[in-house]
User: What shape does this take?
Amino acid sequence: MTKVSLAKDIYWVGAVDWNLRDFHGYSTSRGTTYNAYLILDEKNVLVDTVKHTFFDDLVAHVSEILDPEKLDYIIVNHVEMDHSSSLPKMAKLAKNATIIASERGKDALVEHYGEEFANVKTVKTGDTLKIGARTLTFVEAPMLHWPDSMFTYVVEDKILMPNDAFGQHLASGARFDDEVDQHILMEEAQKYYANILMLLGPLVTKKIQEVVQMGIPIDMIAPSHGVIWRGDPSKIINAYAAWAAGKAKKKIVIVYDTMWGSTDKMARAIAEGAVSQGVEVKMCKLRASDNSEAMTEILDAKAVLVGSPTLNNGMFPTVGSFLTYATGLKPKDKLWSFFGSFGWGGGAVRAMTEMASKVGFEIHQPGLQIKYVPDQEDLKKCFELGKQVAAKIST
Ligand code: FEO
Assistant: This one.
């Protein structure tokens, strides 16, 4: 394999998972990568490992450059298994290597892989490790996105290795941002933020401010998934700052499912009403778009309308799944409204409204229920609902 160099003596040694389509429930239509980095100096350092099914790739990539026995340190920036599940086998090959993690990382390693990891060296924010001509600085990043998460910064090369932060699930033969389609890159970065980090927006803002205040220059951001940001790292930092601040446009996302087409007709009429006000609309029918695709659209939208037919006095199961996911991720500063068809007792609109109220979502009232099949009068009401929500987010 062609060696991929980030800077002199710093290499990408990870793995490309071209065929991954489901990352613990998040759809990954473009696959992903598990990035690990090798730094050669007086002391040789491996930063992170890869998912255990790609252990052989990791070993092959490291071995092309260095005998794994000659590793002096293995840094574990994050214990989630897509990055650490090759560690137990790698530690056996790199038998002289000291493993470095945050304090919480050490605890998580023991929880995952047993007491043999109880003696790892722990570091905290501001700690440094001199490895020869280079210095590594560590920055803890708790809950970005696990308690153990931390960043490693290569001082002399100005390279930040923040593990999951700033990643994208994007398999590619390219390793750098300036080698891939920019639209696809930002689309995947947005999807990644929406589904992995959205809930943690305030912590993202705080961490970005902290790194800025530390005054560390960043020429390159080398995350643990996707391509490395070398062209203009501020592009993704600014995008994160905007997403974390809840910046949104005049856009409505209509997320719904349907049994016999009535809720679908309602959704289309609502969309027409919103479009008539010059607002951008995205439709996500939940058996065509999955939860993670819907959340990606919601990230930069000002309003979300959710539609469900009533089934067994409650929500349709796909809509229940979506709302469970959405209320967990708690998108910031959105206006929500609910609609749907019913046959006799109803219940879906009430159930959706209650679920959203419990987590404090702002709700446009009243919701809209239509019995059986919407007639022209009913469709006018749907059109009006679309218009009203569009008007509200346009002020
Ligand atoms: Fe890519 Fe939190 O693991």
